[in-house]
Design brief:
alpha+beta; 5-stranded antiparallel beta sheet; globular; about 400 residues
Length: about 400
C-alpha cells in the first residue's frame, strides 16, 4: 500500500549511479577495480573516479585525457551491458516505491513519503536502496534526500561518490547558500561566467540579488528560475515516468564539407534507427522535425505533419528528404555542422485510425522483418548500400519507453 503524504518532511530521493559506464566496466573486470578507467577512445564517454582525480572529464578529447592520466586504462563502450545494468537498477527502484521518475538511464527521483509505516524513514529506505543496488547489481550509487527534487539532486551531487546525504527541512538554506552557483540546476559555463562577472559566486549571493535584478541580467525565464531555486522553491512532485512525446537523434558533422549524397545517407541511417525505436515501443508519429546547424553556427528547424500517423520508415524518410531538399541551397551557401531529426506527436500504435489504402506502397511488413534481423544479428547486419563504407554511430542506451 502506498499513501502519498502532504507534510513538509524530506521524502524525495534522488538516486544517481556513480561514474555509471566506468563502474560497470570495473564491476565486470576485477583488474580494473581501483584503477583509472576511461570508457571511449576519441572522446571520453565516462571515466572512473580514479581518472577524475587526475582531471579527466566526460566529453574530453581522448588525447587530452591520456595526457592528464597516462596510466589510464581505455576500454571500448559496451552499450548492451550498460542498458542491462540500468534495467536491473530500475527494477530495484520500482520494487522500493511505485513513484519513480526516471531522469536518465542512471538516475531517478523516488517519492517515499507514503511508506513510513511499512518501510521506515526516508533515510532508512535510502540506505536499504543503496545496499540492494550494491548487492544485487554490483554498482555504487549515491542518494540525496530532501524536501524538493532540486535539493535532493544537489544533495546527491554533494554526497558523491557512494554516499547518502539528507538535507533537513529546517536547514535547507544553510546547506544550499554556501554552494557555488554551478550547483543550481540549469547553470552551465555560460551562465556561471555571467554571474561571476557580476561578482556572484555562491547560491546565497544569487538569493541576495533579488528577482528583478536577475531578470535584467539573465532574461525573464532564466532570472525567475534561478531566483526560485536559490530559495529552494521547487513545487514539482515526483511523477511516475510518462511515455515520451517525441524521440530524436542528431549527429555532429564537423567542419568538412559534405556532399548531398553523404547527407542523404546520414539522414537515411538516422531514420532507420528512429523508425526502429518507434516500432519497438509500439508507437507511431505524425510530425517529423529536421534540425540543422550551419557552418556559421546559426540554426534552423523545419517540420512537416503527415496526414496519418505512421511508423513506416520510408514514409518518414520521404518527408525528411523533402525538408532537407528545401534547405539544400542554404547548406551549399553556409555549410552544415549538425544534422538532427525528431519525431513528434507520438501516439500508441493501437490507437491509429484505419485509412483506406489508396497508396499501394506497403512497407510495414518489410520494416518488421528488418527490425527482427537487426535485433537478432546486430544493427549493421542489414543496412543501406549508401551506409556500407561509413562507421556506425554509437547508439547510447536510453530509458525504455514503456506504457
Amino acid at each position: 500500500m502506498f499513501v502519498p503524504t502532504d507534510d513538509d518532511t524530506a521524502t524525495i530521493l534522488h538516486a544517481d549511479l556513480d561514474a555509471f559506464y566506468a563502474s560497470v566496466e570495473q564491476r565486470d573486470d576485477r583488474r580494473l577495480r581501483g584503477r583509472p578507467v576511461i570508457v571511449g577512445g576519441g572522446v571520453v564517454l565516462a571515466c572512473s573516479y580514479e581518472a577524475k582525480a587526475r582531471g579527466v572529464r566526460t566529453a574530453m578529447n581522448g588525447r587530452q585525457a591520456r595526457a592528464l592520466c597516462p596510466r589510464a586504462i581505455v576500454v571500448p563502450p559496451r552499450m548492451a551491458a550498460y542498458s542491462q545494468a540500468s534495467k536491473d537498477v530500475f527494477a530495484v527502484f520500482r520494487d522500493t516505491t511505485p513513484l519513480v521518475e526516471g531522469i536518465s538511464i542512471d538516475e531517478a527521483f523516488l517519492e517515499v513519503g507514503g511508506l513510513r509505516r511499512i518501510a521506515g524513514t526516508p533515510v532508512e529506505i535510502a540506505a536499504r536502496l543503496r545496499e540492494r543496488v550494491a548487492r544485487e547489481v554490483g554498482l555504487p550509487i549515491t542518494v540525496g534526500v530532501a524536501r524538493t527534487k532540486f535539493l535532493a539532486k544537489v544533495a546527491s551531487g554533494v554526497a558523491k561518490p557512494d554516499g547518502l546525504l539528507r538535507v533537513a527541512p529546517e536547514a535547507e538554506l544553510e546547506f544550499l547558500h554556501p554552494l557555488p552557483v554551478r550547483r543550481l540546476w540549469g547553470v552551465g559555463a555560460v551562465t556561471s561566467e555571467k554571474l561571476h562577472a557580476l561578482g556572484i559566486r555562491t547560491v546565497g549571493e544569487v538569493a541576495a540579488v533579488g528577482e528583478a535584478a536577475l531578470v535584467s541580467f539573465l532574461g525573464r525565464a532564466g532570472g525567475r528560475h534561478l531566483h526560485a531555486l536559490a530559495h529552494n522553491r521547487d513545487p514539482r512532485p515526483v511523477r511516475a515516468t510518462e511515455r515520451r512525446r517525441s524521440i530524436g537523434s542528431q549527429q555532429a558533422l564537423g567542419r568538412r564539407p559534405r556532399s548531398d549524397d553523404e547527407l542523404d545517407a546520414l539522414l537515411a541511417g538516422t531514420l532507420d534507427r528512429l523508425g526502429r525505436r518507434l516500432r519497438d515501443g509500439h508507437r507511431v508519429c505524425r510530425t517529423v522535425v529536421l534540425r540543422l546547424r550551419f557552418g556559421d553556427f546559426t540554426r534552423a528547424t523545419r517540420s512537416h505533419t503527415l496526414p496519418e500517423a505512421t511508423a513506416h520508415t520510408a514514409t518518414l524518410l520521404a518527408a525528411c528528404r523533402d525538408l532537407l531538399g528545401a534547405a539544400t541551397p542554404t547548406i551549399h551557401e553556409r555549410g552544415l555542422t549538425l544534422l538532427g531529426v525528431s519525431l513528434a506527436n507520438l501516439a500508441d500504435d493501437d490507437a491509429v485510425q484505419l485509412a483506406l489504402p489508396f497508396d499501394r506502397a506497403a512497407g510495414a511488413a518489410l520494416d518488421s522483418t528488418l527490425d527482427e534481423l537487426r535485433a537478432r544479428f546486430g544493427a549493421r547486419s542489414v543496412t543501406r548500400g549508401t551506409l556500407l563504407h561509413t562507421r556506425a554511430p554509437l547508439e547510447v542506451p536510453l530509458l525504455p519507453d514503456d506504457p
